[in-house]
Specification:
This protein is mostly helical. It has one domain. The protein is built from 13 helices and no strands. The termini are far apart.
């Protein structure tokens, strides 16, 4: 059973990924939230190529990935839920919940530690905000994140089914909450009590530092509210806000080769500001 589960896991994830991606692209075409000044043909090649590169990197360095780590932990009795012999009905939802909390704190860490921010800022350097922004992460960040998830899964003793559910949810909600899609204001207000919405997460991609350092959740919105990092709206409004960071504003920085070397660069922003200064 374990071998079959592990063998089918990539296909399950790929199928759901393609379905969500296609649905979000169609939604963006039919009901865009913001008009984009930089076309998809300039941004999407780099954003989509980085997905393929990241997938190969993870499979090379972590051939079993997080689901495989859960299966190994189960076989060897590692982790909290195996030590206390928690039943599946209890271990599964709590594993998904605690893994989501772990990713929230990991995200905050990538903003707080300078060398981790150098990796993570490639995600924020996208000059527009749409579904492909949710896929745009530096390969080194992806590898560190996977190492973090493997450690969290092992420590928890999370069931493999819970890890698969969590991974699928994380990927799908990342594409959803980065979508350039329009939701009725009332629906958004109610939905963000249960799920991070595009309007909620768009604040996180503001060029204004105090807004960038807010709304860290990808899936569940509760951690931001609980730990004081929730911000309801961007100061300039969703249509007036500037997406991105102070540096890497040139369209050429959207190319894959430029994206990959961004962590090595330390350019000065136009206003001679840096991340240690308040805009």
């Amino acid at each position: 059973m374990s071998e079959t589960f592990l063998h089918n896991e990539p296909l399950i994830r790929l199928g759901i990924f393609l379905l969500v991606l296609a649905s979000m692209v169609l939604w963006e075409i039919l009901a865009a939230r913001r008009e984009q000044r930089i076309g998809r043909w300039q941004r999407w090649p780099g954003n989509l190529l980085i997905v393929a590169l990241n997938t190969m990197a993870v499979r090379l360095v972590f051939p079993l990935a997080a689901v495989g780590a859960a299966l190994v932990a189960a076989e060897r009795g590692w982790g909290l839920f195996h030590l206390v012999s928690a039943p599946l009905w209890l271990a599964l939802p709590f594993s998904v919940l605690l893994l989501d909390a772990a990713i929230y704190f990991q995200h905050r860490l990538f903003h707080a530690v300078p060398w981790l921010w150098r990796l993570h800022r490639m995600h924020h350097a996208d000059l527009e905000f749409d579904v492909t922004t949710g896929l745009r992460f530096h390969p080194l960040e992806i590898l560190i994140s996977m190492g973090f998830k493997v450690a969290a899964v092992t420590l928890l003793g999370a069931p493999a089914a819970a890890v698969l559910i969590f991974e699928v949810l994380l990927n799908a909600t990342s594409m959803f909450n980065h979508g350039n899609v329009r939701l009725p204001e009332r629906l958004d207000r109610w939905l963000r009590l249960l799920l991070v919405t595009p309007d909620m997460h768009r604040v996180h991609h503001s060029i204004v530092r105090r807004e960038t350092d807010s709304n860290f959740g990808f899936n569940l919105p509760w951690w931001d509210r609980l730990f004081g990092t929730y911000r309801d709206q961007p100061g300039a409004g969703h249509l007036g806000m500037t997406i991105g960071i102070e540096v890497f504003r040139a369209p050429r920085e959207l190319r894959l080769d430029r994206m990959l070397v961004q962590p090595l660069l330390n350019p000065r922003p136009p206003a001679a500001q840096n991340r240690s200064e308040e805009p």
